[in-house]
Amino acid sequence: MEMTTRNSHPDAKADDRNCDGLVNSNGDTTEITVSLSHPGKRISPIEGGSLYRLRDRKFLLEDKRRLCAWGLGTAVLGILLMILHAELCPIVYPPDSIYALSINGLISVSTGCLLILVLAFHYKDVQLFIIDHNQVDWRIAMTTNRVLGISLELLVCAIHPVGTYLAPGAEPPAMETPGTNTPFDANSTSTPLCLCSSPMEAWLEVELLLSGLMFLRLYLVHRAILLHSKVLLSASYRSIGSLNNINFTFRFVLKVLMNKYPARTLMVFIIFFWFSAAWMLRLCERQLQVVTGDMGIALWLIAITFLTVGYGDVSPKTSCGKVVCLFTGVMGVACTAMLVAVVTKKLALNKGEKHVHFFMMDIQLSKEFFLTTSQRDFPLAHIAFSFLHSSLDPDFRRSPS
């Protein structure tokens, strides 16, 4: 509180704005002034800095969302180019042609762009951590878990086929059909595997492994879903979540999606997993030129394995194909359990339906109790009551006399 004192002569004119003062015995007027703003409540540079931090936090979230979307698009582009190269070579062009080199070059360029986008995303994430925790040194944010996570992401995103650059200009080995000594021809069940131009069979295994591991880049899907979800963008969700100590992670967003759109979410995941696993099985089985190297047969094998049926008409022949089928069976059991839970929830009565059902059951039990009691204690009243209800309601169920 701020107080000021002013002494004036008796003959001085009173100021209209200072008419609330106190007059002492000597005629002096003491003016008391109360400050409307406490010194601690004034707008200080600290509060201005808080406003700037909120603005910077908003911009950083938008930058993270944009970088994540670009990173996911670049990862999907690299996977599509890898699938295109595996399907077109050697049917359309030979492995040592300029087309193969161009497509592999595009895959490498997309991989480099993806690594840059991942680094930029984590740079924005560190800046956001500094703003949220009011820190001044970025090294505080670089914990052991964060460093290991960034290194693992860079390793996963850097995986792509590199055999074209390491052994160019060589012809791939002639594939033989099972049980014969003749080279593979165009009338066989599936096209030969052509992922690199090296004549060594070990390079084919390495290229096969690198091509399959490129699907690990799809881990960016969960990050994109989290950053673009309405749960994270809503201020109400964040406020209530902070009061209840809820962390807005992908697990929380997935639970929200499964509660709001259970059938749609589960269907999208099953269809995407079905086609991805079928193509990976086809990629694994093509090196032996067996029947499961065909896309249609691979889709059938993945479907019966996912549903845990297992007719036994077809089976994988390679170790890679067996691993894919094993993983498909595990995911099939998990998705079947979730499907049963979703169907059970859809068939269950809601709150209003339960109220109506239980109310009618109570009425029916009350009728049966009244009829039983009246039949034992008042036989004539029981007969009259039964006759009255049977005349009004033909479906009325009488108790046995």
Summed up, what is this model?
With 401 residues, the chain is mostly helical. 62% of the residues lie in helices and 1% in strands.
Mean pLDDT over all positions = 75
Oligomeric grouping of the chains: single chain
Strand order of the largest sheet: 1-2
Helical residues, percent: 55-70%
Main sheet properties: 2 strands, antiparallel
In one word, what is the shape? flat
Q: Termini separation (Å)?
A: 91 Å
Instruction: Evaluate the radius of gyration.
Output: 38 Å
Low-confidence runs of at least 5 consecutive residues: 1-23, 34-38, 40-47, 168-188, 396-401
Question: How many helices does DSSP assign?
Answer: 14
SSE pattern, N- to C-terminal: EEHHHHHHHHHHHHHH
Total beta-strand segments: 2
Measured by DSSP, the beta-strand proportion falls in under 5%
Structural class: mainly alpha
Architecture overview:
The protein is mainly alpha-helical. The protein contains 14 helices and two strands, in the order E-E-H-H-H-H-H-H-H-H-H-H-H-H-H-H. The protein has helices spanning 45-88, 98-132, 144-158, 163-166, 201-213, 220-227, 230-233, 235-243, 250-260, 262-285, 295-306, 319-347, 351-377, 379-392; strands spanning 22-23, 29-30. The chain has a two-stranded antiparallel sheet. Helix 1 (45-88) runs antiparallel to helix 6, helix 10 runs antiparallel to helix 12 and helix 11 packs across helix 12 (319-347). The longest helix has 44 residues, at 45-88. The chain is flat, with a radius of gyration of 38 Å. The model is unreliable at 1-23, 34-38, 40-47, 168-188 and 396-401 (pLDDT under 50).
